[in-house]
Amino acid sequence: MTHTLWRFTLATACLGMIASAGLAADTVPNTMPAPVVYVADFDLDAAAIKPDESPPKRARHLIGNLLPRGPVVPEEDPQVHARKIVSSMADRITSDLKKAGIDARRLPPGVAPPDGGWVVRGVFLSVDEGNRIRRAVVGFGAGQGSLQVAVAVNDLATQGQQPLYEDVDNGSGGHMPGAIVKLNPYVALAKFVLAGHDEASTIKHTAQDIADMVVQRVHGAPAQ
């Protein structure tokens, strides 16, 4: 009887140790570092604005010079405007990713991302009258046609950085500037339409949609 009680006590103690070990393993926090997402500046071309030398324009400029307040304020430089759009989009995406719990960081222009983590890249696009995809241009013909942005989210550890697109035609023929491009079919791309007349609001909502897509990709959802 004594041996039976001893064996029962020993077995109970072993089961208790196993259960405690299992509970401890379950309660140990996951120490795997969260993946870093690098947000690169999206490609957006800028072109010089051709001065409007029409008589009404010259008359307005002359009247502006004669007014006490001074000359009419010139239009914003296309290069400056393009940088604002690109920077605002990247900042918004980075901020929205951080709000979603992602370790997101801006990738400075010209700096290659490391071998690990994820990278978000994109290119602003427009569609001309012939239904051809072109790189969008700020400063000349802006606001014409359908403006889109093609975005790729790639795992740097497995996919690396393949080109998003290639130029098909570097000329500026037709009514819209910007080279005709062919998107890379081997890179997971998602397209977003920039709709709306308020530029800041459009960038805000589009950046949120892009950030939502990035969160799904990083968490293992298949590319759409």
Give an overview in words.
The protein has 224 residues and is of the alpha/beta class. It has one domain (34-218). Helix content is 36%, strand content 22%. It has 4 helices and 10 strands; from the N terminus they run αββααββββββββα. The protein has helices at 2-27, 55-66, 78-99, 199-218, and strands at residues 36-39, 45-46, 103-106, 118-127, 133-135, 137-138, 146-155, 165-169, 180-183, 189-193. Strands 1, 3, 4, 5, 7 and 10 form a 6-stranded mixed beta sheet that branches.
Number of helices: 4
Radius of gyration, CA atoms, in whole angstroms = 28 Å
Number of domains: 1
Helix and strand content put the structural class at alpha/beta
User: Average pLDDT across residues?
Assistant: 76
- N/C terminus separation: 68 Å
Largest sheet: 6 strands, mixed
Overall 3D shape: globular
Total number of β-strand segments?
10
| Proportion of residues in extended strands | 15-25%
Helix content: 25-40%
Poorly predicted regions: 61-73
Order of helices and strands: HEEHHEEEEEEEEH
Topology:
Blueprint: H1 2-27, E1 36-39, E2 45-46, H2 55-66, H3 78-99, E3 103-106, E4 118-127, E5 133-135, E6 137-138, E7 146-155, E8 165-169, E9 180-183, E10 189-193, H4 199-218
Parallel strand pairs: 1-3, 1-4, 2-6
Antiparallel strand pairs: 4-5, 4-7, 7-10, 8-9
Helix pairs in contact: 3-4
Compact overview of the structure:
This protein is of the alpha/beta class.
Give the tags.
224 residues, alpha/beta, six-stranded mixed sheet, two-stranded parallel sheet, 22% strand
